[in-house]
Predict the structure.
Amino acid sequence: MDAFKIENYEREHGAGTFIPFRHLSESEADQVLHSFKERLHLPVQSDYGDISRFIFANSFVMKDVDAESEEFDLDSIVRQLRFDAADLVYLNWYRFDKIDELRFVDLCEKFDDIWYPSSDDLDVFDRNMNWLISVEHSGSIRALRIG
């Protein structure tokens, strides 16, 4: 999680009030990346570009859903898609080298404090890696069912 997001939140809500999360170590992020490639049946040597192309080619854009809108509700989207969200989810901020783990309920509740429009491209998935939701910097949402 970017430090400025925590600072912005805590400036408004008080020190130490940002939601609990855990930033994965480099080796943990590598393990997640390796597992993700396996779930997608991609070769081990695949790079982030290969993964991005796979996600883009196999996911679909959710029409009339905009992460920037006041009505945006990630929990409703996950339920609408019939994705089973585990208690903990991963947030992939870049190329599977910056990954945070937090409770799904916290992500849904504080989404606007976590994802910043125009600057963040964010992939959300859980440990089972049966689904992925990409929130693009433009606010559009792509969804992928895996397996």
Remarks:
- Helices lie at 3-13, 26-39, 48-58, 74-80, 104-109, 111-114.
